[in-house]
Q: What sequence folds into this?
């Protein structure tokens, strides 16, 4: 069994938004909506300032509240890599999943169903990287299998200090940020 | 400096979550009100008081069907993928309170309908004689009446608690993340239902009994509301910040003036004086109680949507 996830090197991310554009193009994300985005976190007082730029998206949690709260069974965990997906033709648009997500990673597609990052599962099934990873000009994004001890993502986590977003929410996010 | 910027600007999400409008608050209020009415009418039927307490056991269930249908219509209006509403009834998701709610709502209608059968309204046409036969059967069998009473109390309790658990299950919203909400909404539903039936009851004993009961429910609701706040204040920093949205933040005026003041304390004082025969019973107290119940849902839903694990800007 694979467990897909991402590792993002915040030392390399420059916030160019190529990942955002690639996602919108690849997944035909409607105008005005984003499945991924750039966050900039600045802390400190001059001259001791620390700024982190990072690309964010659905964290493909291992303990996904958006799946558990869905009354229609539309939100589900895909058999390949534990990716959280939505069956569009089962979703009633109740927005429970949006209330349940601590990352606010979901939105209502103009056609009415809940939409979010899919890790480009249609590409991954063909052995390709997600679109955002494949276009990153600084190579700051790594996609891989956390269940494989020899995968690049595991090696990075073993060798670098890393954090996940809001781990205290208990959802076990599967995207890690290298500090 | 602690600055956070994002390029995300998704509709209903940014700058702060606003996925649910008035529809959900109204639905939660009407659901709680009907739940309270079911428990009250079920109890009186169980205690064989249905011939005297006509408003509780005849009018309230009929009104309950109408109010719940209005609430469900509000819920339907909120759905974004309306043509797929039926999908909720093609599955049962045990981990989803919304799925439990969808199925509980299906049990509510037969329970209310059985209650209506005890004394069929005048507008029911005579040619529907099977309804009158069922009505006679229920009226001749005490055991059946008691089962209907128990069913109404049980389903009503389930409905009342579910409306709160629905919100409390969303761990991503610190303000909601307490199962006390289930009991708080049940207490509020019982209070609003007592107020409504007290206001429209023609029987003096029934009306006075429900006014006394309402005072107890209001006191219970104040106690639970206090526990809810203590629970938040004694938890993590994000839960404390969530409580502050109500206590000192953007929802503080609505919380203190419209919920605690006009929705709980003032009607409790007015109704206590009326019950002690110091002033006359007027519709003021019950209307304030019902408005307070609606305000409670609006405040909890909207302030809960504002509360978050990371954003602190909502307090400003």
A:
């Amino acid at each position: 069994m694979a467990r897909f996830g991402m590792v993002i090197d915040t030392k390399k991310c420059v916030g160019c938004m190529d990942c955002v554009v690639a996602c919108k193009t690849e997944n035909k994300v409607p105008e005005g909506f984003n499945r991924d985005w750039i966050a900039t976190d600045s802390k400190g007082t001059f001259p001791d300032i620390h700024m982190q730029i990072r690309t964010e998206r659905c964290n493909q949690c291992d303990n996904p509240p958006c799946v558990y709260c869905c009354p229609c069974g539309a939100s589900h965990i895909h058999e390949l890599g534990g990716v959280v997906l939505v069956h569009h033709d089962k979703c009633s648009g109740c927005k429970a999943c949006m209330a349940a997500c601590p990352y606010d990673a979901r939105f209502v597609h103009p056609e009415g169903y809940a939409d979010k990052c899919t890790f480009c599962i249609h590409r991954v099934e063909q052995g390709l990287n997600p679109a955002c990873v494949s276009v990153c000009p600084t190579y700051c994004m790594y996609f891989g299998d956390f269940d494989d001890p020899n995968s690049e993502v595991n090696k990075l986590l073993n060798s670098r200090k890393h954090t996940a977003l809001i781990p205290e929410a208990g959802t076990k996010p599967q995207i890690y940020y290298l500090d | 400096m602690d600055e956070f910027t994002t390029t995300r600007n998704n509709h209903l999400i940014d700058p702060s979550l606003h996925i649910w409008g008035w529809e959900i608050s109204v639905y939660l209020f009407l659901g709680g009100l009907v739940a309270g009415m079911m428990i009250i009418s079920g109890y009186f039927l169980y205690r064989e008081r249905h011939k005297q307490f006509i408003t509780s056991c005849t009018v309230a269930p009929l009104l309950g069907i109408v109010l719940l249908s209005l609430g469900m219509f509000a819920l339907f209006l909120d759905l974004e993928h309306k043509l797929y509403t039926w999908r909720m009834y093609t599955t049962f998701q045990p981990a989803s309170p919304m799925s439990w709610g969808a199925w509980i709502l299906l049990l509510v209608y037969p329970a209310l309908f059985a209650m209506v059968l005890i004394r069929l309204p005048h507008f029911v046409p005579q040619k529907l004689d099977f309804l009158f036969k069922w009505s006679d059967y229920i009226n001749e069998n005490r055991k059946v009446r008691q089962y209907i009473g128990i069913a109404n109390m049980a389903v009503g309790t389930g409905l009342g608690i579910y409306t709160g658990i629905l919100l409390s299950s969303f761990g991503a919203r610190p303000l909601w993340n307490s199962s006390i909400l289930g009991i708080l909404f049940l207490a509020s539903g019982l209070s609003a239902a007592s107020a409504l039936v007290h206001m429209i009851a023609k029987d003096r004993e029934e009306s006075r009994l429900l006014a006394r009961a309402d005072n107890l429910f209001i006191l219970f609701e104040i106690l639970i509301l206090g526990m809810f706040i203590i629970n938040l204040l004694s938890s993590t920093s994000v839960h404390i910040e969530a409580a502050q949205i109500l206590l000192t933040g953007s929802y503080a005026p609505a919380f203190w003036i419209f919920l605690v003041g006009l929705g709980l304390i003032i009607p409790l004082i007015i109704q206590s004086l009326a019950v002690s025969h110091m002033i006359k019973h007027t519709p003021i107290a019950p209307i304030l109680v019902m408005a307070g119940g609606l305000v409670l849902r609006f405040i909890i839903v909207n302030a809960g949507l504002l509360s978050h694990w990371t954003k602190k800007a909502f307090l400003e």
